[in-house]
Each structure stands twice: as structure tokens, then as C-alpha cells.
């Protein structure tokens, strides 16, 4: 009798064990199918944009699978990984896109995330389904960036076609990193010449310049020692049309924004990107 009870007990244990394994696998699969973020990585930074049009995931999936290899594919979204960084791209049928990274957020990581998002954008716009290449500057201007704390990333893009003298208002915070750059002549397709060298200045000190002849693109000049809380003078002489100055900073958390303006307030440039925390990133890739 005791042998029969033992055999029955062993059979019951085996059934429970296999049932638990099957239930766990089913629960995991159900979680992914329901739209939960894949749990292989702990993401510490990211960027999200609205592409401005719905995306045909069928055609995009074919291309993405050949270039990257898909991690996940269904009627709602595609997920793939960038092999050189391990960052993950999430593209949704409704036109949302997120790139998430296990790297901590700083301005170098942000530049990588932006470049990877541009790869996503280029792949989608190449399908010819309403997402056009001309809209990239506007789309990335209104991106959301994610880091450990909200209110730490700040970005202003100011377009101009003549020299200027403006004020940059920096909120009361600790500035950890700050970059200034200039985008110019992206669409004119060659070398142009200035009457005089172009120069960007902060508080009267030159931070970057372009020669009299040559394409003028100033990349990410480190100005962390110059950008501090309060009011700074920012100026540029003799520009070429078109130009866009970009100011970026990583700071301690603050709800106040950077703003660029002139004396009579006829020029007023706000931050347009959003700086959100990692909980917001988790929501973006789950939804």
C-alpha cells in the first residue's frame, strides 16, 4: 500500500512540475504577445519619435530582417537589435518609433541614439509610404529622450539667415555636459565661400569658426566650462543661408527649460525635445 502511495505521490509531483514549466512558458509568451517589452536587456536610455505616418510592418520587416535580424514581429510592431551597439529598435504600425539602449544616458550616448533613430527613419522613409526624408529635422526636434531622471537633457535648435546677438537663459542647475554645433548647407551640395570667416561666440569668446571657403558644419564643440546658470551672450557673424545652431546640455534634474531670446523678445527659441525618465521609456516600448 505504501508503495502505491509513493508511486502516486511521485506521479503527482511530476505532473505538477511539468505543468508549472508549461504555465511559465505560456505566461512568458503571453506577455510578449500582449505588447510587453522583451526582458533580455535592462534599458538605461532611449529616444522616441512620431514618424508622422503609419508604417507597413510587412515590407519593413522584410528589410529589417535582412539587415539586422528581427527579435520580434507581429501586426503591431517590429523589434530588432543594432549589432554594433546592442541597442534595440521598436517600430509600431501607428508610426511611433523608439530606440532603447543599455548604456547610461550622456551626450555621447544621445548622439548614438539619434544616429540609430535616423537609420530607422531612413529605412521607413525608403518604403515611400508617407514618411519623407525632408521631415527628419522636424521629427528629431520634437523627440523624447529618456534617462535615469527626467528634466536632465536640454536641446535648442535655432535657425537663422543673418548674424545675431542673443541671450541664453540657463536654469538653476548643475551643468554636467554642454555642446554647441552648427548645421549649414546640408542641401546645397558643395563648397561655398564666406566674405569673412563665420564665428560662433559665447560671452565674447570664440568657440568655433569656419574658414572663408568650405562647407561649414561645426560638430559638438564642448562648452561645459562656459554654460552655467544665469544669462549668457551667444552671437554669430556673417552666416550663410541656411544655418541652424544647436545647443545641448546634460544637467541635474530641473523642470525649467533653456531658452534663447534677443533684447526685444522678437526672437524666442524654446527647447522642443522632451526629457523623460526610464519609467516613461518602459511605457513607450510596452504600449
Descriptive notes:
This protein has 287 residues and is α+β, with helices and mostly antiparallel strands. Helices cover 27% and strands 33% of the residues. It contains five helices and 17 strands. The strands form three sheets. Strands 2-3-4-5-1-6-17 form a seven-stranded mixed β-sheet, sandwiched between helices. β10 and β11 form a beta hairpin. The longest helix has 32 residues.
Summarize the structure.
With 287 residues, the protein is α+β, with helices and mostly antiparallel strands. The protein has five helices and 17 strands. The protein has a seven-stranded mixed beta sheet, with helices on both faces. A six-stranded antiparallel beta sheet has the order 11-10-13-8-15-16, with no helix packed on it.
Give the integer mean of the pLDDT values. Answer: 82
Unreliable segments (pLDDT under 50, ≥5 consecutive)? Answer: 1-8, 10-35, 185-193
**Helix proportion of residues, in percent?**
25-40%
**Terminus-to-terminus distance:** 56 Å
Question: What structural category do the secondary elements indicate?
Answer: alpha+beta
The total strand number stands at 17
Shape: globular
What percentage of amino acids are in beta strands? 25-35%
Key words describing this protein structure:
single chain; 287 residues; alpha+beta; 7-stranded mixed beta sheet; 6-stranded antiparallel beta sheet; 17 strands; 27% helix; globular
Amino acid at each position: 500500500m505504501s508503495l502505491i502511495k509513493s508511486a502516486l505521490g511521485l506521479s503527482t509531483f511530476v505532473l505538477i512540475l511539468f505543468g508549472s514549466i508549461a504555465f511559465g512558458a505560456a505566461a512568458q509568451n503571453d506577455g510578449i504577445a500582449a505588447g510587453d517589452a522583451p526582458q533580455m536587456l535592462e534599458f538605461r536610455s532611449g529616444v522616441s519619435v512620431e514618424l508622422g505616418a503609419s508604417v507597413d510592418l510587412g515590407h519593413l520587416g522584410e528589410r529589417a530582417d535582412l539587415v539586422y535580424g528581427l527579435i520580434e514581429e507581429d501586426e503591431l510592431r517590429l523589434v530588432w537589435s543594432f549589432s554594433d551597439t546592442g541597442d534595440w529598435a521598436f517600430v509600431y504600425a501607428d508610426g511611433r518609433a523608439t530606440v532603447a539602449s543599455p548604456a547610461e544616458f550622456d551626450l555621447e550616448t544621445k548622439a548614438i541614439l539619434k544616429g540609430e533613430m535616423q537609420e530607422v527613419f531612413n529605412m521607413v522613409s525608403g518604403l515611400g509610404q508617407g514618411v519623407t526624408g525632408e521631415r527628419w529635422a522636424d521629427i528629431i526636434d520634437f523627440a523624447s529622450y529618456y534617462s535615469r531622471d527626467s528634466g536632465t537633457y536640454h536641446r535648442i535648435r535655432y535657425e537663422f539667415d543673418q548674424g545675431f546677438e542673443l541671450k541664453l537663459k540657463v536654469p538653476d542647475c548643475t551643468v554636467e555636459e554642454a555642446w554647441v554645433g552648427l548645421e549649414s548647407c546640408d542641401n546645397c551640395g558643395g563648397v561655398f565661400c564666406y566674405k569673412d570667416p563665420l564665428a560662433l561666440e559665447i560671452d565674447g569668446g570664440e568657440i568655433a569658426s569656419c574658414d572663408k571657403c568650405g562647407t561649414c558644419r561645426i560638430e559638438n564643440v564642448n562648452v561645459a566650462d562656459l554654460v552655467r546658470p544665469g544669462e549668457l551672450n551667444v552671437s554669430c557673424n556673417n552666416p550663410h543661408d541656411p544655418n541652424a545652431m544647436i545647443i545641448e546640455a546634460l544637467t541635474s534634474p530641473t523642470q525649467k527649460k533653456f531658452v534663447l531670446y534677443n533684447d526685444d523678445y522678437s526672437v524666442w527659441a524654446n527647447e522642443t525635445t522632451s526629457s523623460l525618465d526610464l519609467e516613461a521609456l518602459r511605457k513607450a516600448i510596452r504600449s
